Fold this protein.
Amino acid sequence: MRISITVNGDPVVQPVDPSDTLLSVLREQLHLIGTKWGCLTGDCGACTVIVDGRSVVSCLQTVGQIDGADITTIEGIAGRGRMMNDLQEAFVTHGAAQCGFCTPGMVVAAEQLLRDGVEPDGAAIREGLAGNLCRCTGYSKIIDAVLSVALARME
Amino acid sequence: MNGYCRPRSVSEAVAILAANSGAMVIAGGTDLVIDRRLGRADPQAPLVDVTGIDGLRDVHWDGDELHLGATATVREIESDPAVIVRASALAEAARVLGSVQIRNMATLGGNLCTASPAAEMAPPLMVHDAVVAIQGPDGERRWAVADFATGPRTTILASGEILTNVRLRTPAHSGSCYLRQTVRWAMDLAGVGVAAWVLTDGTGREAAVQEARVALGAVAPTAVLVPGLEALLAGAPPTTERLGAVSAAASAACKPISDTRGTAEHRRHVAGVLAARALSIAHARAAGLWSGGLAPVNGRESAVASSGARA
């Protein structure tokens, strides 16, 4: 089948096998490799993208289900013409990335959490990011980064 | 059909399934996509995607029945105001299932149809005495959700049938609660999951129990209702002594296995502890004594226990 989707603001018409995952279409057909190929069982969150305003694990999302959807990947988080948004800047200033493998999924999941109006509270942010595993940082600096943006965006 | 189709109506889905005996139903895909990848399900089996069916995702009141569409996502269930207030156990179970990402995809019907022994949605629906609607080639049939799963990953669904909705009633002076024990705070299957539901004769501390149900998840091949609670509880408030008897009955109703999430003995014990705790909170909710909102998520049950005791 052919799907028509919007990816990071751009319309995309793509021939796909509808039972393929969004992750494989993003990486192998659209060459958007910021979205990471992690556990493939929905546990690690490295493949998190936003589909119609909801964060999903793209490794389990079959593309036949999302014809017409509006998709944001890590490549589209900053918006056109910008290197990074405030959340990505905060990850840098707080030292919230080490090896970096989880970072795209972590940023995308955190961005949607912020858009959903998460309480500016460490526990709420931890709960909201429970589906994103990081083996390096111990999470504290990630939570600090997200918390700083949650507070800044309230002003 | 080819390898994949996306019907727009239940009747169309049923007709496609009737014509394609090897086809599998896909909803959120959070179990099936993994199973296909790992070879636990046939990766070549044609898929009938039910997420495009009009109305199958609705959550609404139908008279005095709360109607939960089979493809409503777990995230939609956990954030639905009617579910939170009138079927608290279901909201509490929904919000500890997987991660935000998984809950945005996983569906109520999918959780029931996968029929894991640890299925988070089963115990709360069982204590609410929910009824599932099943559509097949011969029309619709209704079934108690308590009898829907028949074993690990097996249900009463016959070939060509799909689950379309789940309905439950929430009478005045009723309340429910779901608590669970896990090894990790999040992203874990329940070691033990316990739902409780109570109907009282009024409000206040002395409100007597009229009906009560407790269901246990992850301690038997399917979620199970604890038998004999009416005799232990009816006609009086749930005193410490009566709650002790509920604990013993819950532990006795377990047929647990030992695995990485706990030994059989530990599960039996925890089921008893959580049963009394959940029942006490359900009573407080039924009797209008509860102002604490939903129970804190997993790993912080001790806070609930103390507030439950105060209630």
Notes: Chain B touches chain A at residues 3-4, 6, 26, 28-30, 33-34, 37, 47, 49, 51-52, 75, 98-102, 104-105, 185-187, 297 (CB under 8 Å). Residues 298-311 of chain B have pLDDT under 50 and may be disordered. The domain at 1-54 of chain B is CATH 3.30.43.10 (Uridine Diphospho-n-acetylenolpyruvylglucosamine Reductase; domain 2). The radius of gyration of chain B is 19 Å.
